[in-house]
């Protein structure tokens, strides 16, 4: 956790603290959470996948997690960490890191404003995201979004007069079969020969002072 006394220049919403509490949206038996160790495990198998989220929304701030993505033939699967004002809402604001199971050496970033996205970019990681833990960070401000991987800035978006994410958002993560999207061109077709697939999250941090009730 960032100590404001040590870093007085850091805005409150960019000071972070360990995530202590989550909600599980579906398949709770496929998600394990250990608050003391600050670890979360998501499993995809015959039960389908699972999704966790924070219990509060946040208005701006820095969000981070060490992630080790599933191993094996992950074709068809999507694993991720992202912000969304409400999953499933057609007018949602959203900021994404998404891993595509057909190629674990890339990550897709994207953001939505009022339900409109189409701002995808793909980034070469320089490693297989299943080979150990790597740090993924989203820094979201009123006029600026930054995506970082292992401390390296991979994308910057600045508000330039157009609409920009401004709704309070939950931090989400899930593992799911996305084979049906674009007839499998996005993530590949699900094969499942190496199930169960396990995605590990640890050292998850959320903003200190930007939680919003409701």
Automatic annotation (TrEMBL):
<dbReference type="GO" id="GO:0005975">
    <property type="term" value="P:carbohydrate metabolic process"/>
</dbReference>
<feature type="active site" description="Proton donor">
    <location>
        <position position="98"/>
    </location>
</feature>
<feature type="domain" description="GH16">
    <location>
        <begin position="1"/>
        <end position="206"/>
    </location>
</feature>
<dbReference type="InterPro" id="IPR013320">
    <property type="entry name" value="ConA-like_dom_sf"/>
</dbReference>
<dbReference type="Pfam" id="PF00722">
    <property type="entry name" value="Glyco_hydro_16"/>
</dbReference>
<keyword id="KW-0378">Hydrolase</keyword>
<dbReference type="InterPro" id="IPR044791">
    <property type="entry name" value="Beta-glucanase/XTH"/>
</dbReference>
<dbReference type="InterPro" id="IPR000757">
    <property type="entry name" value="Beta-glucanase-like"/>
</dbReference>
<dbReference type="InterPro" id="IPR008264">
    <property type="entry name" value="Beta_glucanase"/>
</dbReference>
<dbReference type="GO" id="GO:0004553">
    <property type="term" value="F:hydrolase activity, hydrolyzing O-glycosyl compounds"/>
</dbReference>
<protein>
    <recommendedName>
        <fullName>GH16 domain-containing protein</fullName>
    </recommendedName>
</protein>
<keyword id="KW-0326">Glycosidase</keyword>
<feature type="active site" description="Nucleophile">
    <location>
        <position position="94"/>
    </location>
</feature>
């Amino acid at each position: 956790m960032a100590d404001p006394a040590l870093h007085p220049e850091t805005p409150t919403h960019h000071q972070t603290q360990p995530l202590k509490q989550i909600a599980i949206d579906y398949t709770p038996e496929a998600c394990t959470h250990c608050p003391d160790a600050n670890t979360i495990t998501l499993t995809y198998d015959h039960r389908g996948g699972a999704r966790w989220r924070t219990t509060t929304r946040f208005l701006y701030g820095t969000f981070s997690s060490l992630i080790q993505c599933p191993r094996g033939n992950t074709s068809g699967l999507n694993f991720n960490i992202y912000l969304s004002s409400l999953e499933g809402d057609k007018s949602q604001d959203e900021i994404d890191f998404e891993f595509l199971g057909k190629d674990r050496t890339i990550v897709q970033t994207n953001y939505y404003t009022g339900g409109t996205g189409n701002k995808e970019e793909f980034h070469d990681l320089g490693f297989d995201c299943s080979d150990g833990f790597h740090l993924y960070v989203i820094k979201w401000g009123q006029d600026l979004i930054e995506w970082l991987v292992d401390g390296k800035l991979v994308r910057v978006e600045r508000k330039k007069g157009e609409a920009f994410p401004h709704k309070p958002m939950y931090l989400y993560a899930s593992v799911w079969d996305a084979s049906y999207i674009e007839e499998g061109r996005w993530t590949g077709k699900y094969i499942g020969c190496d199930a169960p697939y396990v995605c590990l999250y640890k050292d998850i941090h959320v903003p200190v002072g930007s939680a919003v009730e409701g």
